[in-house]
Design a protein that fits this description.
2 domains; alpha+beta; Alpha-Beta Plaits; 36% helix; 9 helices; Ribosomal Protein S5, domain 2; 8-stranded mixed β-sheet; single chain; binds (3R)-3-hydroxy-3-methyl-5-(phosphonooxy)pentanoic acid; 4-stranded antiparallel β-sheet
Length: 343
């Protein structure tokens, strides 16, 4: 398909956190309470096309049009995307004009709102496509700050491979950006996703983080451990020590979920297949295979392993009762323009 004049298409791979982000220090600016560390994937991403109508011809009351996976986006998603595009319009000034409306089409390679992190790749792709369609050429660290305003994890998908997101110190969030981590380039790992349900997750991450911070007696303990995990993960990546990285990833995920489970009322993202998949990963490890799990705000299990073991891990996880399917991804590049915008 040929893009319309002025339309820009970007692709971003999703990313999976190995040291989790769970909690905000500022809700309005989406500033994380801690740093986090992730792996950007080559697939399971989002392809987004943005076109501004230039002269604001839609007239007063015109709205952005957002089509997600072939259907008009719901009101909540439209409001979230419009708020994001308003920032881009404000930044672009006279290049697009404050009344210019956008036409956004987006295709997710991951089930939306299922805990497979579609907001990470979604807002990273939107940040790249919308800024370029608005005539802006932002450096990656500014794109990362912008993507963060859409979704905290999206800041990391601007970069490829292993990425660290900074908590930042400034109140305006200008230093809460991600950066690529040196040392991990070319490390041939795989992430095998065991999909354990096709339904939407029970509670979105923003509401769940807020609820955890407000009601969980374990939230303070969760926050207190993150810097230690970040330091250990950095060392493990620099040394390409998969077992060392895996130990950190598992404890970070379990502590995040423990904090959420201890909230009042509890937030439980797991289903029986989640636990069965964890048991499968642990059993593979007992047989000598270096494979380690992580779990995001949903019931799916993601297994980190060497490329050479990915098929065996996928076959084993696919045989777990309740696992619907598996998807295998490799490390991938950061968000990028793939059509239009001079690409
Ligand atoms: O970016 P958000 O608001 O969807 O939050 C992401 C939360 C986790 O995926 C559970 C952890 C993370 O660091 O990606």
């Amino acid at each position: 398909m040929t893009a319309a004049a002025g339309a820009v298409t970007a692709f971003a791979g999703t990313n999976i956190a190995l040291v989790k982000y769970w909690g905000k220090r500022d809700a309005a600016l989406n500033l994380p309470a801690t740093g986090s560390l992730s792996l950007t994937l080559d697939r399971l991403g989002t392809r987004t096309t943005v076109h501004f109508d230039g002269d604001g011809g839609g007239g007063a009351g015109a709205t952005d049009r957002i089509v997600m996976n072939g259907a008009p986006a719901d009101a909540a998603t439209t409001a979230r995307v419009t708020a994001f595009l308003d920032r881009v319009r404000a930044h672009a000034g006279s290049r697009v004009g404050s009344t210019a409306r956008a036409f956004v089409t987006t295709e997710n390679g991951v089930p939306t709102a299922s805990g497979l992190a579609s907001s990470a790749s979604g807002f990273a792709a939107l940040a790249v496509a919308a800024t370029r369609a608005a005539g802006l050429e932002l450096p990656p660290d500014e794109l990362s700050v912008l993507a963060r305003l859409g979704s905290g994890s999206a800041a990391r998908s601007i970069f490829g491979g292993f990425v660290e997101m900074a908590r930042g110190q400034r109140a305006d969030g200008s230093d809460a950006a991600a950066r690529p981590l040196a040392g991990g380039e070319g490390w041939d790992v795989r992430l095998v996703v065991a999909v354990t349900t096709v339904g939407p997750k029970p509670m979105g991450s923003t509401a769940a983080m807020e609820h955890t911070a407000r009601t969980s007696p374990y939230y303070a303990a969760w926050l207190a451990g993150v810097d230690i995990d970040l330091a250990a993960a950095r060392v493990a990546i620099a040394a390409r020590d998969l077992p060392a990285l895996g130990v950190v990833a598992e404890r970070s995920a379990l502590r995040m979920h423990a904090a959420a489970m201890a909230a009042d009322p509890a937030i439980i993202y797991w289903n029986p297949a989640t636990l069965a998949a964890l048991a499968c990963v642990r059993a593979l490890r007992e047989r000598g295979l270096p494979v380690f799990f992580t779990i995001d705000a949903g019931p799916h299990v993601k297994a980190l392993c060497r490329a050479a073991h990915a098929d065996e891990v996928a076959v084993s996880l696919a045989a777990v009762p309740g696992v619907v399917k598996t998807l295998t991804a490799a490390p991938g590049p950061g968000a990028r323009v793939v059509e239009g915008g001079g690409a």
